[in-house]
Design a protein that fits this description.
7-stranded parallel β-sheet; 46% helix; binds 5'-O-[(L-methionyl)-sulphamoyl]adenosine
Amino acid sequence: MNRFYVTTPIYYVNDVPHIGHCFTTIVADTLARYHRLAGDETFFLTGTDEHGEKIAEAAALRDTTPQAVADEYSQRFRATWEALGFSFDRFIRTTDPDHVRNVQAVLTRVHEAGDIDFREYEGLYCVGCERFLTDRDLVDGRCADHERAPEPRREGNYFFRLTRYREWLAEYIRAHPDFIRPERYRNEALAMLREDSGLEDFSISRPKSRVTWGIELPFDPDHVCYVWFDALINYLTGIGYPDAPDFDALWGATQHVIAKDILKQHALFWPAMLRSMGLPPFRHLNVHGYWSVDGRKISKSLGNAVDPLLMRERYGFDAFRYFLLREMVFGVDANFTEEALVTRANADLANNLGNLLNRTLNMTERFAGGAVPSAVAVGAPEAEVEAGARRAATAVHGAVAEFKFHDALAAIVAFASDVNRYLDARAPWKQAKREGGTAAVHTTLYTAAESLRWIALLLAPFLPEAAPRILAQLGLAASVAPGSLPREDARWGALAAGAPIARGAPLFPRIERADPR
Ligand code: MSP
């Protein structure tokens, strides 16, 4: 049995879910659905990252406790993800008791391995980044990411001896070319590991005199664990580390999905931590680029973060999801505008796919009494459509394996165009007028309906709301069962003739215009 384990970053509880968090979660959800449909044993983990100074700071500003802030924002993420229909198997919180236990167990283990030592440290600290900055992180004396001046700090911290793992890790990344993908991020990780790159050990503790919101170090009760060391371990807790029966099997199938902002922690810290605690590395780290909105970086001060619930209300969540997956080349930055979403949804979903479904259903009512007819006069044009369906399946599977979701969707939509053209060329409205034309009309309509069945199944991981509705309108059971993802050699003609179609509201109505934001 194939296994598949996919994770998102766990999101900080100082922000509300926006397009950026939503995109990573859409990618993970799409992959989880794809693998379930392919019949693989699948686990999908998401959740919230709740400790650290940033949260304590937010709580102090609001005159409340960090726990109260964490509860409120974590619930907000969870409720949003549920409302959007994400199919996660666990929503983890770093305040969950099993996670706290695990972090302490890992700290003990890594300490015993001799990879943690105590040092005095002096430097410029950015609370936004939750770390000491180096010269490279500064622009005009301010943190380049958070645009705030860091604070000078001197304190005793425990350090994880990352530098001990530098050579091993560089070697591992070189020997496993797709460990970190796409390649540009692999190269970035290798650059960070170069001898002259200034790689340093990293601090894994904060003194309680300054921060108390965190997990206590098992070997020194005066310190709490640094939020990143704590957070990365969620990926183990989520699947029942250390003693769940299928932990090892799932861990071997781990696919982390992140954006480029947290590459260093995942590409360097995390594999070294795993090695230190005696676990093998994860399978792949998959890194995507950043979304900007209307050409600008998303920022709290601009207030330009896109609310996925609002997008769902305006355009339907599947249209939003379609746009994001179709527009961004995984690994490269992309820009979001509502105008582009509307143009894309109208062209691909309303005018192409929706139109194919509507005309097929209309003509089935008109020329076949409202039930899926039989294909009795199959010829070369039908064979060509069938070959197109198989090509689309091949393209989808190849693209998903390489995280090229835009290519997968393009292949499905291109197939829908081909079927529209086939319908235009066969012209059932003309075939029907010819003497003895019924067999030809029925064959044409069956071919279109069977194509739509393939399209719906191939689309199901990407458009989980629309796909079952397409199937339902074709008179098929609306559930998309595990194992039903068509491979290139799947049976063509599995759609049973005779089933009554069930035309409903148009699936992808044309969107008149983008709402002003
Ligand atoms: N808590 C850490 C992650 C710990 S994982 C062990 C964190 N949280 S975060 O809330 O800041 O989330 C960062 C992640 O959110 C990014 O890696 C990405 O998945 C997503 N995104 C946030 N803004 C984004 C964009 N503008 N564009 C694309 N994805 C972005 O870092």
